[in-house]
Design a protein that fits this description.
With 688 residues, this protein is an alpha/beta fold. Helix content is 28%, strand content 17%. Its EC number is 7.1.1.-.
Length: 688
């Protein structure tokens, strides 16, 4: 291992470590623009120059590997002079528009100009101007500010996997541009705002709305998909101004998907801020909490528990789900389900419904099989991790059974339906041999494999495949389920499933049609067909006036994920907690508090009065809820049930990435994205 001296400090580093990385290890800060820890090294900004003994000139530290006996100086007079010269060149054409630039206060160029800039310029030539580019509804461009660090190009090519940006022309005429002036059709494009070190690429929805020093920052997690990306929510007063990524190496690294970043404007549109009760004329009218509770109590009088059902939605937190489960138990109802998409799988064994290897475990896999999933739309962060593994080398093959889509890395399409899966499970398919001989085989199963009538048989076939191909072995479990709903795994862990003799979602809908189910409680359930609820009395508790609220007879306004301290469990079984960034709107309240107050009104008081008491109850119900931000290994065992697997093709449950939940459907930004990227692609596909 090379040993070198940096500013008089001797340090030993791993082979291949760059001088810049070695400086960072001992706390020596080296300025940079083009270098980024997760991107390739172009060494084109020259801001990271250092002095190396016996070198005739300053050296770009980001591209210089450490060598044994090297002596480096990062704070010498030569280094300072060189960096000031680089900064002077960068500012020759850069516009002096900091007062109106959205990057102001968070700009790398601004910060480093303080240390290495000069108070006047020596160049009298006119500054060059560059035409702004149209990169779609999310990215605002001001290309005159661009310093050609090429971070954006490298991010799109390497992380997002969409070659949407490039450089044209040479010398001072160089421009960064999109191909054919089209928007960037990537679910990860918003990260360009973070990687750009100047104000050339900024957030279009956030433009000219706030300054960073005006905002209150809250560290929380995302619920737009089941990944549970760690985020920071910036608020000003009662409004979310922006959402930024927060570093978590095992979940989302430092990236977030576009829906996570930009759907927050849906939090202020179509919101439920007061209770509503449907009157005798069939119209919803505003009511007080007492009136709403009284209407529910009156309707439930004399109704047997077997005639009551509950459905938990995709964004429901564990606290509210467990409170609703306890309430239905006290009412004597066994009819409940948390699988709005109608997915059928055996939830009796946790290993059968979580991402067992962990998202970070993707980087260890050498063969990956995707079944019934489109991870690019269902979980862009997971898809980016698979691409990262592909670029690292050592990934022999990625194959897929199900929809044929562009996943930004080479995929061998084995087939579309259950017949291919059955052949694999029985060892009749050649790909089974590749899985069997792999050191770290991995299977990723999406909800498209379970949301069908033979879901339990598919799950049993997957268990046979796992056993036959050795997916589970000492120190490795390569059987992974990729969920699409943030609240799904937490609800399964809490046991929000049909009790003894209880109905699942399909049974509940059938009961509503036949009249066997008289009362249905929807906890943020907006993805079920409301027309199939028949004449049942519907209680809707949620935060948006979406599909469930339109059908409701009583509406109880709840809190969105930014408005409560709540627990969610991501697809890999990691328990994480949101933090209250702002208070619920109007008369809305946290969901578990609504259920606690309703239980008292109904005469079935729930045994907790505070959040801490409720979380103690959660830990009693399932000890996994006490393991915050940890992966708890699940015991392997049989799951699913015997049966024939249909030959029908597996279909991804996500048909429009930008409009999958009540928040994103209320978002004007997401609507523009859908109009720009999804609908034109659908028209093109139809024409072909």
């Amino acid at each position: 291992m090379p040993k070198l001296t940096i500013d008089g400090i001797e340090v030993e580093v791993a082979p291949g470590t760059s001088v810049l990385q070695a400086c960072e290890q001992i706390g020596k800060e080296v300025p940079r623009f083009c270098y980024h820890e997760r991107l390739s090294v172009p060494a084109n900004c020259r801001m990271c120059l250092v002095e190396i003994e016996r070198s005739p000139k300053p050296v770009a530290s980001c591209a210089m590997p450490c060598a044994d006996g090297m002596v480096v100086k990062t704070d010498s007079e030569l280094v300072h002079k060189a960096r000031k010269g680089v900064m002077e060149f960068l500012l020759i054409n850069h516009p002096l528009d900091c007062p109106i630039c959205d990057q102001g206060g968070e700009c790398d160029l601004q910060d480093q100009a303080v240390a290495y800039g000069f108070d006047r310029g020596r160049y009298t030539e006119a500054k060059r101007a560059v035409k702004d580019k149209n990169l779609g509804p999310l990215i605002k461009t001001f290309m005159t500010r661009c310093i050609h660090c090429t971070r954006c190009i490298r991010f799109m090519d390497e992380i997002a996997g969409v070659s949407a940006l490039g450089a044209v022309n040479r010398g001072e005429h160089t421009e960064i541009t999109g191909y054919l002036e089209q928007g960037i059709a990537s679910e990860m494009s918003g990260n360009l705002v973070d990687v750009c070190p100047v104000g050339a690429l900024t957030s279009k929805p956030y433009a000219f709305t706030a300054r960073p020093w005006e905002l209150r920052r809250t560290e929380t997690i995302d619920v737009m998909d089941a990944v549970g990306s760690n985020i920071r929510v910036d608020t000003r007063g009662p409004e979310v101004m922006r959402v930024l990524p927060r570093l978590h190496e095992d979940v989302n690294e430092e990236w977030i998907a576009d829906k996570t970043r930009y759907a927050h404007d849906g939090l202020k549109r179509q919101r439920l801020d007061r209770p509503y009760v449907r009157d005798g004329e069939g119209k919803l009218r505003p009511a007080s909490w007492l009136e709403a509770f009284a209407a529910i109590r009156t309707r439930l009088e004399g109704v047997a528990g077997d005639c009551i059902a509950a459905v938990a939605g995709d964004l429901a937190d564990v606290e509210s789900v467990l409170a609703l489960k306890d309430l239905t138990d006290r009412l004597g109802s066994p009819h409940r389900d948390c699988r709005q998409d109608g997915a059928r799988f055996d939830a009796g064994r946790r290993a059968g419904y979580i991402f067992n290897s962990g998202i970070a475990g993707i980087e260890q896999a050498d063969v990956i099989l995707l079944i019934g999933t489109n991870p690019r739309w269902e979980a862009p962060i997971v898809n980016a991790r698979i691409r990262k593994r592909y670029l690292q080398g050592g990934l022999k093959k990625v194959a897929a059974i199900g929809p044929k889509v562009d996943l930004t890395y080479p995929v061998e399409h084995l087939g579309a339906g259950g017949d291919t899966l059955a052949a694999l499970a029985e060892g009749r398919h050649p790909f089974a041999d590749l899985l069997r001989t792999a050191e770290r085989p991995m299977v990723i199963v999406g909800m498209g494999a379970f949301a069908r009538a033979d879901g339990l048989a598919v799950q049993a076939a997957l268990h046979r495949l796992a056993d036959a191909c050795g997916l589970v072995r000492e120190g490795w479990n390569g059987f992974n389920v990729l969920h699409t709903a943030a609240g799904r795994v937490g609800a399964l862990d809490a046991g929000f499933l049909p009790g003894a003799g209880g109905r699942d979602l399909a049974g509940i809908l059938e009961g509503c049609a036949s009249g066997a189910i008289e009362v249905v409680y929807l906890l943020g359930a907006d993805e079920i067909p409301a027309e199939r609820l028949g004449k049942a009395f519907v209680i809707y508790q949620g935060h948006h006036g979406d599909r469930g609220a339109h059908r409701a007879d009583v509406i109880l306004p709840g809190a969105a994920y930014t408005e409560k301290n709540a627990t969610y469990v991501n697809t890999e079984g990691r328990v994480q907690q949101t933090r209250l960034a702002m208070f619920p709107l109007g008369e809305a309240r946290e969901d578990w508090k609504i259920l606690r107050a309703l239980s008292a009104e109904l005469g079935h008081v729930l045994p907790y009065d505070s959040l801490s008491q409720l979380r103690q109850r959660m830990a009693q119900a399932n000890p996994v809820f006490a393991e915050i931000d940890r992966l708890v290994p699940a015991a392997w065992g049989p799951f699913g049930s015997a049966g024939a697997v249909s030959r029908d093709a597996f279909v991804s449950p996500v048909t429009d990435y930008y409009l999958t939940d009540p928040i994103s459907r209320a978002s004007a930004t997401m609507a523009r994205c859908s109009e720009t990227f999804i609908k034109p692609a659908a028209v093109t596909a139809a024409a072909e």
